[in-house]
Fold this sequence. Notes:
Rossmann fold; 2 domains; seven-stranded parallel sheet; 15 strands
Amino acid sequence: xxxxxxxxxxxxxxxxxxxxxxxxxxxxxxxxxxxxxxxxxxxxxxxxxxxxxxxxxxxxxxxxxxxxxxxxxxxxxxxxxxxxxxxxxxxxxxxxxxxxxxxxxxxxxxxxxxxxxxxxxxxxxxxxxxxxxxxxxxxxxxxxxxxxxxxxxxxxxxxxxxxxxxxxxxxxxxxxxxxxxxxxxxxxxxxxxxxxxxxxxxxxxxxxxxxxxxxxxxxxxxxxxxxxxxxxxxxxxxxxxxxxxxxxxxxxxxxxxxxxxxxxxxxxxxxxxxxxxxxxxxxxxxxxxxxxxxxxxxxxxxxxxxxxxxxxxxxxxxxxxxxxxxxxxxxxxxxxxxxxxxxxxxxxxxxxxxxxxxxxxxxxxxxxxxxxxxxxxxxx
Length: 380
């Protein structure tokens, strides 16, 4: 098929949505589909890698106020209509619901092109973390309007599909997340890297990777870290990533190691060189970091939510806590910090659990779903 993907975030940006559709665009291109990715232009990150598997169409965009690491695309309906009239795609898939994504939905419908969408980010939940709680209902209404104007909306888990259905979203399907199990592997463990963190061979290293922003529940994460250190002073703490709260966290926690953003190949080495991963966020639609940690052979603890609900079996391949019991998550983290045999057993089982969750399998299912939409549209 001739597929156009419209997204307001894409590599070299570093986040779960960009990573996911970087994989999808590359793999679908390798399978013989003609893929074009429309995304906001950003020269501040330098020239992105040129891919032979898909084309890109950079479009105007602006930094998100107060968060320049991310951008939103400006409406581009006229540009897209002109381009699609001259070279009609078989399908338009809209990844994000911002001005660019919304204008792409409208343009595709005007030209009677089949259009699908993805739900990746709980923006309506974020309003409560940024002082805009009164906008919660309006934000949810906007998201529902954008997605319900598409033929199908893909969400990362069946749990989220059910939640969105309760909110009035229609045409829901699952697009899960894969893990590159060759990139994220215990084989990349590095004694040299651990030594640079000040960790002896037997010292538990606790890693966290993610965007340092208000919605990620860092206060609870730091409470867990404090409890782990109190129970086992040998624990070391490494935080990978960047975001608006990083300067504050660096000042408040001088004994933690903050790496900033690092390349994904280096991220894989960081995962594998740690021992424990604690996931405290409750706003993720999936949580790629949890499955990457499991693939890397870490003992993980997280709330029974999103990726953890899908893959964690409490006491078998990780530790799980009810979403409304933060103290239970802290207790699970302390268990991992103080019980080396438990860590070893859970880490091995975690890797075994994630091995079948390859991007190849995930993208094959998504490819079949998109082809079915194209076929149905041609018959309509």
